[in-house]
Amino acid sequence: MGVRILVVEDEARLAALLRRGLSEEGYGVDLAGSGEEALEWVAVGEYDAIVLDVMLPGVDGFEVCRRLRRRRTPTPILLLTARDAVPDRVAGLDAGADDYLVKPFAFAELTARLRALARRPAGTVGAVLHVGDVRLDPAARRVWRGEAEVALPNKQFRILEYLMRHPGRVLTRAMIAEHVWDYDFPDMANVIDVHVRQLRQKLADPYPGRLIQTVRGAGYRFTPDP
Fold first, then answer.
1. Which one, of 61, 44, 58, 49, lies nearest residue 6 by Cα?
2. CA-CA to 207 of 20 to 30 Å: which in 3, 7, 68, 198?
């Protein structure tokens, strides 16, 4: 079965261009013109990724993200935003998005990000990972700290898995970008830092981090909480 994408965009011309371009790339594409319609599509269908515009009539893209994550919908979400300010990008990632793309964008970059989002980790070792009191099940895509389960969106899950597979080792932002996103665009360092900040919040590991430690000038290291 091919990769299926839900495009949520209220600008009819852009939506049509995205559908045509993605269809030519071999994707199956459904279109939604509002946040409410997007929630209805996701309730009845399964998608490998969602391309979601932030500025939608009624329920905006941020709220769509939040509602999907509250439903525990794991589908990767790529936000489209016309605003490049850091607070807007942080708001999107905080809402549960996995990645974002600023308008106007090159179609080649969109498809590169979608390939990375929709790709299922290949050859993943099925054994449950234990580092300190954190447990991660790659097959079930579930995480616990102690007895409490922690819900993570796709990219945060993959960052945590990568760190836990290399406990005590310093992983650079470039290494994380290449492993988790499969590419390294100029703004990836900022995206990674935001995801790590969210991971710390969800794991109750406040800055500067005892589990996920910042190694200044280098990257991040995962160490069991003493």
1. 49
2. 68
Omega prior to 208 cis, within 30 of 0: yes
Each residue's pLDDT tens digit, 94-147: 788 888 888 888 999 899 888 877 665 433 445 788 888 999 988 777 899 999
The band of 182, judged by pLDDT with boundaries at 50, 70 and 90, is low
Q: Is there a contact between 65 and 71 (Cβ–Cβ < 8 Å)?
A: no
How many other C-beta atoms are found inside a 10 Å radius of the C-beta of residue 192?
21
Output the CA angle 159-192-119, nearest 5 degrees.
50
d(CA 176, CA 192): 8
Q: How far apart are CA 37 and CA 194, in angstroms?
A: 29
